[in-house]
Amino acid sequence: MSSSIAIIGDRFMLPSVFAERITAICGDAIDIRMLEQPWPDEPMEHGYAGSKLDGLKEFMGDPDELAAFIGEAPLLVTHLAPISRAMLQRLPSLRFIAVSRGGPVNVDMQAARDHGVLVVNTPGRNASAVAEFTIGAMLAETRLIRSGHESMRGGDWRGDLYRADRTGRELGEMTVGIVGYGAIGTRVVKLLKAFGCRILVTDPYVQLSAQDRNDGVEHVALSELLARADVISLHARVTAETTGFIDREALAKIKPGAILINTARGPLVDYDALYDALSSQRLAGAMLDTFAVEPAPPDWPLLQLPNVTLTPHIAGASVRTVTFAADQAAEEVRRYLAGEPPLNPC
User: Which Gene3D superfamilies match (predicted)?
Assistant: First the structure.
């Protein structure tokens, strides 16, 4: 079956990789046209504080230009292109959208259903990358890797970091709390087991696997996790329930001297409250890969604190993330063209 596919990628999710995977699995009888957006060299719009496109989040591109590019194509593979109700009204031929991310936050899902457009996604595309990054973040904070690096770059050999009252702690002697037990959280748990640490999980919607229960992982309420954990790592989605849930009240419950890791999404955290907890030393440190506003403004107060490690939302950035998402999207395209049910409908 021949068809026309529009691929809108960017400089991370390369459209050429998706085209190669689709051709390899579906054959070369498909008409493929590609558009590369300039992200991440240019920022996307996040929309968490309000969106000009019907509440869409994390998107890039001018709707008029993108609609013109998609044209009469019945199939679309995209990473960041915003697909609003207004755009769907201009694209009557569109019947299938593959979004190469864990959640289709750049698609108006109700509008897609109303127009009879099947939307699929690529869950777990960056689960391995984020899980590995999270372990690295924990080690950077608990073993003073960031502190030692920064001091040496400044010409200061900090022998005091060897003092018993200042040196770091090993993960094996600590309790680590995982907030969110989805594709990423479960992988972090699996990797943590090798360190021998105590592992707590909170997620009101998911039960622990039999293996994790047998291995001594505990499923606890959020309040208990905050009170017991030496390291707290966030892996929850942004919902009405979780937006800003790490607030002053939650931070007040955290064990003094604990460390917070956020490789999930910025809106989960009240960053003013976090600043106060870090500057007062109630929290020993934090590692943040996501922020309330991205890019983070250069005068942002958290950038000035000495007990924070910051990275520009790169936890999920790996070559494997791209190829994994491309393989998933290509299989969904094949299944759609063959009349088979999708693997990951939204």
Answer: NAD(P)-binding Rossmann-like Domain
Q: In 226-263, which positions are buried (b, 16+ CB within 10 angstroms) versus exposed (e)?
A: bebbbbbbbbbebeeebeebbeeebbeebbeebbbbbb
| Residue 110 pLDDT > 90 | yes
User: How much is the pLDDT for 1?
Assistant: 43
Q: Where are the alpha helices (DSSP H) in the chain?
A: 15-26, 63-70, 85-90, 109-114, 127-142, 145-153, 183-192, 210-214, 222-228, 248-253, 271-279, 319-337
Token code pair at residue 192 = 């943590």
Helix, strand, coil shares of the chain, percent, nearest 5, are 40, 20, 45
Q: List active site positions.
A: 265, 294, 313
**What is the Cα–Cα distance from 178 to 326, expressed in whole angstroms?**
29
Q: Please say if the pLDDT value at position 50 is more than 90.
A: no
pLDDT tens digits for 23-42? 999 998 899 999 999 999 99
> Would you say the C-alpha torsion 11, 15, 20, 26 has a positive or negative sign?
positive
**Alpha-carbon distance 152 to 160, whole Å?**
13
Please name the helix (run of DSSP H) or strand (run of DSSP E) that holds residue 259, with its range, or none.
Answer: strand 258-262
Sequence length of the chain is: 346
Q: Report long-range pairs for 65-70 (Cβ below 8 Å, ≥24 apart).
A: 66/8, 66/35, 67/91, 69/6, 69/8, 69/33, 69/35, 70/6, 70/8, 70/94
pLDDT digits (tens, 9 = 90+) for 210-261: 999 999 999 999 999 999 999 999 999 988 999 999 999 999 999 999 999 9
- Calpha distance 330→72 (Å, rounded): 20
Predicted confidence (pLDDT) per residue in 253-286, tens digit: 999 999 999 999 999 999 999 999 999 999 999 9
